[in-house]
């Protein structure tokens, strides 16, 4: 039983903190400010809450996402009034599309002062409305029992919108009047929490018959981004043993097995245009979040299957491949458990073997060509994956990095992470940093491109980072992705406006933030540095290797790789 504690004297703040505790929040990221002082006081003094202070609001929001990703639990994020809340927007949209329960708490000025020229006062109401599941606007100047009942009822509703089957961020905005720093002794009483009970939908008899008929056709299962889940992996492995099933995954799917095709682009590159129809499925089953491969999206849009079953509780009407026919609002585990219990005619067609054969040939050819490639991004990624420990968390920044990573088979035991909700470059380092802080006994490795790293360099501006955080910075002097993808690669404006070439390096940033720094621009030296880079014994600060690669040769060498696979 908790004793009395010191808290803010504002009743609405006390209720919000109590609701956070009731709904499982143990960690709160706070951006320093004055208007949010009541929240800082209340959270800091609460015995079950751990607080983290991060100055840069944009970085702080992604830092919180990394915590949610690592812990699989909600995290609260607090800011002061004014433009501070707008800096949360990139991370909130990422959380929305990644289904991460980020609880945004913004302090606001009293409504009477909006548009009246008062400092740090903007129109905060619904500023995040397009990417939150619920918005709640409260104030501290109504203290009646009726208003407190209303606030608690609404807080219950807001948190349920964050934590139900379709998890998502929510935004609670609170108008706070001065004085802001007054405290009072309060007794800790449980929040009157409501709970939703969800029932797993079962296949109805009529639905079962339709499902049985479809399960005897050529089936392609495509998995997007998912957290590690051994139960789901085992169900997918079992399903993949049906000869008519081909199961395609990416590193970010965090499921692997010899029966699966892991490198989709590598495999699709092997299939000639005149053979594509042989690989067309009759039934497509999709689960998980975003898929990195543009090739598989193009393949399925062009050669649409007769049926597409979309499995999952979120974004039911999202139609990425333009062919959705059935929406199963089920957890994928529940779906595949029910499918495995059905008795249906087994099909002996070798559709799964057709895909796996191409995958194995592509893998063998890739191994042949990699050692022959000259110093480049592609060669460096090959080298990195030879040294990365098999029990780490690997964070992949967006654009070219995550695409290069998908060309290599997943390493058993490695967890693959990336901000693939919106696929932006703006918070990769901060997200990885947040994950590393809440799991200090696990090695966290971030591979980042230079533009992404410099854009988010304030991720290193906090006191929580430790020796379990390693950064590999691939510096090719610009946005190398624009030399790889069609369109900008041949544009006259490429270097200045798309690739945005530069000559910056990370040495000064690392010195400013006390990050151990090493650099190289040769394959031999890189191999030597990587051989000891991942050791954590005796390390109490993060470390970074900056690998400088030839900007103009990278795309040509990648083209050589794909040409060899196809030849």
Overall description:
The protein has 567 residues and is an alpha/beta fold. It has 3 domains: 5-182, 3-Layer(aba) Sandwich (Rossmann fold), CATH 3.40.50.970; 210-352, TPP-binding domain (Rossmann fold, 3-Layer(aba) Sandwich); 371-566, 3-Layer(aba) Sandwich (Rossmann fold), CATH 3.40.50.970. 36% of the residues lie in helices and 17% in strands. It has 20 helices and 20 strands. It has helices at residues 11-22, 37-45, 57-71, 89-98, 145-163, 205-214, 230-240, 264-268, 294-302, 332-341, 351-370, 377-387, 400-405, 428-438, 450-455, 481-484, 494-498, 507-512, 523-533, 554-566; strands at residues 5-8, 27-30, 50-53, 75-79, 102-108, 135-139, 170-175, 183-186, 219-223, 245-248, 260-261, 283-287, 307-311, 326-328, 393-396, 415-417, 444-449, 469-475, 516-520, 543-548. A 6-stranded parallel sheet has the order 3-2-4-5-7-6, sandwiched between helices. It has a 6-stranded parallel sheet with strand order 11-10-9-12-13-14. It has a 6-stranded parallel sheet with strand order 16-15-17-18-20-19, with helices on both faces. Strand 6 (135-139), helix 5 and strand 7 (170-175) form a beta-alpha-beta unit. Helix 3 (57-71) packs parallel to helix 4 (89-98). It is globular. The N and C termini lie far apart (71 Å).
List keywords for this structure.
567 residues; 6-stranded parallel beta sheet; 20 helices; globular; Rossmann fold; alpha/beta; single chain
TL;DR of this structure?
It is built from 20 helices and 20 strands. By secondary structure, the chain is of the alpha/beta class.
């Amino acid at each position: 039983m908790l004793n009395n504690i010191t808290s803010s004297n504002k009743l609405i703040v006390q209720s919000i903190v109590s609701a956070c505790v009731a709904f499982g929040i143990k960690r709160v990221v706070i951006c320093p400010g004055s208007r949010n002082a009541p929240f800082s006081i209340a959270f800091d003094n609460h015995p079950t809450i751990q607080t983290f202070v991060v100055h840069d609001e944009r970085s702080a929001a992604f830092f919180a996402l990394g915590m949610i990703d690592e812990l699989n639990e909600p995290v609260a994020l607090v800011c002061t009034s004014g433009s501070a809340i707008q800096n949360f927007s990139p991370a909130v949209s990422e959380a929305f599309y990644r289904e991460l329960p980020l609880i945004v708490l913004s302090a606001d000025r009293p409504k009477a002062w909006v548009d009246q020229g008062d400092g740090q006062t903007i129109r905060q109401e619904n500023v995040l409305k397009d990417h939150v599941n619920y918005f709640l606007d409260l104030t501290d100047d109504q203290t009646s029992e009726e208003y407190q009942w209303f606030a608690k009822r609404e807080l219950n509703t807001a948190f349920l919108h964050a934590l139900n089957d379709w998890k998502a961020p929510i935004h609670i905005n609170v108008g706070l009047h001065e004085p802001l720093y007054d405290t009072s002794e309060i007794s800790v009483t449980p929040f009157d929490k409501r709970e939703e009970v969800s029932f797993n939908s079962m296949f109805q008899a009529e639905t079962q018959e339709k499902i049985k008929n479809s399960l005897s056709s050529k089936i392609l299962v495509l998995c997007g981004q998912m957290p590690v889940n051994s139960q789901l992996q085992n169900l997918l492995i079992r399903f993949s043993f049906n000869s008519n099933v081909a199961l395609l995954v990416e590193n970010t799917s965090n499921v692997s097995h010899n029966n699966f095709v892991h490198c989709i682009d590598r495999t699709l590159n092997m299939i000639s245009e005149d053979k594509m129809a042989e690989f067309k499925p009759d039934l497509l089953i999709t689960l998980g979040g975003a898929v990195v491969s543009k090739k598989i999206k193009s393949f399925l849009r062009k050669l649409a299957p007769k049926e597409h079953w979309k499995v999952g509780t979120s974004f039911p009407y999202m139609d990425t491949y333009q062919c959705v026919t059935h929406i199963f609002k089920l957890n994928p585990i529940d779906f595949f458990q029910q499918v495995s219990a059905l008795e249906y005619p087994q099909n002996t067609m070798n559709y799964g073997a057709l895909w796996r054969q191409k995958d194995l040939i592509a893998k063998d050819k890739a191994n042949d060509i990699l050692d022959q490639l000259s110093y480049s991004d592609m060669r460096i990624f090959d080298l990195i994956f030879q040294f990365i420990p098999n029990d780490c968390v690997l964070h992949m920044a967006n654009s070219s990095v995550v695409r290069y990573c998908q060309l290599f088979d997943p390493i058993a035991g490695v967890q693959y992470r990336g901000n693939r909700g919106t696929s932006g470059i703006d918070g990769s380092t901060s997200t990885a940093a947040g994950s590393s802080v809440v799991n200090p006994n696990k090695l966290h490795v971030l591979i980042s491109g230079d533009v992404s790293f410099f854009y988010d360099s304030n991720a290193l501006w906090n006191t929580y980072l430790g020796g379990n955080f390693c950064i590999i910075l691939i510096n090719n002097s610009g946005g190398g992705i624009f030399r790889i993808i069609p369109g900008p690669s041949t544009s006259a404006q490429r270097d200045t406006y798309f690739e945005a070439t530069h000559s910056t390096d990370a040495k000064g940033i690392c010195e400013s933030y006390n990050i151990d720094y090493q650099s190289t621009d040769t394959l031999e030296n890189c191999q030597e540095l990587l051989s000891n880079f991942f050791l954590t014994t005796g390390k109490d600060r993060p470390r970074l290797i900056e690998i400088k690669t030839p900007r103009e040769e990278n795309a040509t060498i990648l083209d050589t790789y794909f040409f060899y696979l196809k030849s």
